[in-house]
Design brief:
By secondary structure, the protein is an alpha/beta fold. It has one domain: 3-Layer(aba) Sandwich (Rossmann fold). Helices cover about 30% and strands about 25% of the residues. It is built from seven helices and seven strands.
């Protein structure tokens, strides 16, 4: 299941790896774009499901429904990240994989912004340098790892992306603009 599936790009990549793939998004326009993309490209209609869902509420799936859940650039937008992580735990089978990606507020340029009295802008869609495009929560590697562990996950891999990613991995909390964690349901 891809949470915040947008136009379905990650859903399509998962088609080769899983028998059934789900994409959920709170925005009807996103689900419609993904549906149009799927129909246009004639992609596995029988095993791909796209639907509206709000992760701030209970997801419309039974317990232990999924082998893997991805949540890329979404957790920071949700009202209650604790509830969302709890839902991921409920929805995953034992030993299920959670891949989560959020901006890293401890990244060096964001720290420098704070040093000079400016709020760090962690999104790519900001307005006049003071609004962070709906980001409601901010995370560091330590804070996100703690949140996952408190909800019954074990973090098995930490990473970041971007230009010179291999060098950024030398000191992820300071040099990586984003946080990518792979966690397993305990």
């Amino acid at each position: 299941m891809d949470v915040g599936c947008g136009d379905g790009s990650l859903v399509w990549r998962a088609l080769e790896k899983f028998e059934e793939v789900y994409g959920i998004d709170i925005a009807l326009s996103a689900v419609c774009r993904a549906q149009i993309k799927m129909n246009t490209n004639h992609m596995g209609l029988a095993k791909t499901y796209l639907m509206l869902a709000n992760l701030d509420l209970q997801a419309p799936f039974k317990e232990a429904s999924f082998d893997a859940v991805t949540c890329v650039a979404e957790l920071e937008h949700l009202f209650d990240p604790y509830h969302a992580i709890s839902e991921f735990h409920r929805l995953l089978r034992k030993e299920g994989i959670l891949i989560i990606n959020v901006p890293n507020t401890a990244w060096l340029p964001y720290r420098l912004s704070l040093l000079f009295g400016k709020l760090p802008i962690t999104s790519t869609h900001h307005c006049r340098g003071s609004w962070d495009a709906g980001h409601l929560h901010y995370f560091t590697f330590e804070a996100l790892t703690k949140l996952l562990e408190e909800q019954g996950f074990q973090v098995v891999q930490r990473s970041g992306s971007g230009v010179f990613a291999e060098y950024r991995r030398w000191w992820l909390p300071l040099l990586s603009a984003d946080i990518i964690l792979k966690a397993v349901k305990r």
